[in-house]
Amino acid sequence: MTPSTRTKVKKALRELRLFFFEAVLLVGLMLVYWIIRGALPERTTDAFGRAYQIIHFEQRFGFFWESGWQEHIIGDRALVDIVNGIYLYGHLPLLVGCGIWIYVQSRERYRVYRNALLISAVIGLFIYGFFPVAPPRLMPNLGFVDTIAMFNNKSNTMQPGFIVNHYAAVPSLHFGWALLVGIALIDIARNWWVRAFAVLFPTFMFFAIVLTGNHFIFDALAGALVVLLAIALAFVLENIRLGLRQTVS
Questions:
Q1: d(CA 117, CA 110)
Q2: pLDDT band of 249, cuts 50, 70, 90
Q3: Contact present, 153 and 194 (Cβ < 8 Å)
Q4: Which domain holds residue 171?
Q5: What is the number of structural domains in the chain?
Q6: Alpha-carbon gap, residue 2 to 6, rounded angstroms
Q7: The model's pTM
Q8: Which CA distances in Å does 58 have to 51, 200, 216, 218, 246?
């Protein structure tokens, strides 16, 4: 093996170790997030009270459309299967795949958006703990349908019980993290098809979370606000880090 080949092999192994460390770290932190979210007390009365407050808020401002949207798709099994599939299978798999792509394309930008993901998770946990909200699917008396339970004969989350919190509806990080990925892809990508996906992914996820009865429109708006705040804080932290690095050097 020539010296240049050995150098390339060492570099490749170093990159592989860094990637493995990053993957283990992120998976570990997100597992902690899910465990804490699942362990939060489920204050049912408060959760349903806030859900009704959200309904009144949307009615007041003229965008209480969720049940009407559901009525348009309930009779079409194909459409229901599509939105169920997007909700169930378009979340974590696409987040992981896009995260790897961002990591490969730009390590610096990946660090910013990874930090934004973690910051939004912390903000989300705070809100879930102190301001629980029930999702529309738990309010069939108002005409909402849990399409996943009804048409797929599956639990709504398909997650282990110890990480499930039925009242962690606001903010919707299901949508918020799709938006985070979309923003990251638009920031990094130069190919038109990647940017098109960056727009379509959060758009489809928005309709999926509403049409499956998992979130109000308000929840998605709250998720977007939390993620935008988290991205801003992540860029501030990155600028501070770069400033300290320049000072030291």
A1: 10
A2: low
A3: no
A4: 3-248
A5: 1
A6: 6
A7: 0.94
A8: 11, 25, 9, 7, 48
